[in-house]
# Entry
Amino acid sequence: MDSRGQTPVWLRGEPPRARRKPPLTIERIVDAAVDLLDRDGVDGLTMRRLALRLDVTATALYWHVRTKDDVLDLAADRIFADVPIPRASDDWAADVRALVRGWRAVMLDHPWAPGLVGRPMLGPNVLARTEFLQAALVRGGCRGRRLAVVTRLLANFVIGAALTEATWRRTADPETRAAARAHVAASADAYPTLTASGHLDDTRWSDDLLFEEGLNGILPHLPTASPSGGTAGAG
# Structure
């Protein structure tokens, strides 16, 4: 030390530097939003909570996104990136099955997602998968209005299945499920068909089985392309 009791400058280490925050980007915002949505749902996502999670001010968020709706649109498109796009094959129906299975699985992983799919979905991930779906249906013989109807039929089936399953899993524990089945069975005179069919009895048939059987009920009734390139079986 020198006469003033201070360590000479040459012997001092580098002063600790303040930790730099990573730059705020759309990607970081969307990643954080998906995490919040997975944990707390749509109602739990606010711009203030999102800003806190990113350790920024709400004002900083508004440089990148204008509203919560913007965030929801971006988050919905982000998770669709996890839906695998199959390699197109000679079996158009198998291609459709592969796509919608992945679609359902992703929505079950993100239970808030089915409730958003009715919004205008213009993100690149959603559009790429919708393009694949319709291209497969066209190979199967769907055209014009029939193509629009079948696209909506499949979308509504997948979204509805995922929404029902995700809500049931989130809100009904095993005891509640058993109580629901017992409630129906206790009124067998009033609901004989429901009782006999095992309504609300998810121990009888799994959600996966019912989903697959639902696809079996939809796809065989679609038109198929004839060898000449026309459409066979189209009404």
User: Anything to note?
Assistant: The chain is about 55% helix and 0% strand.
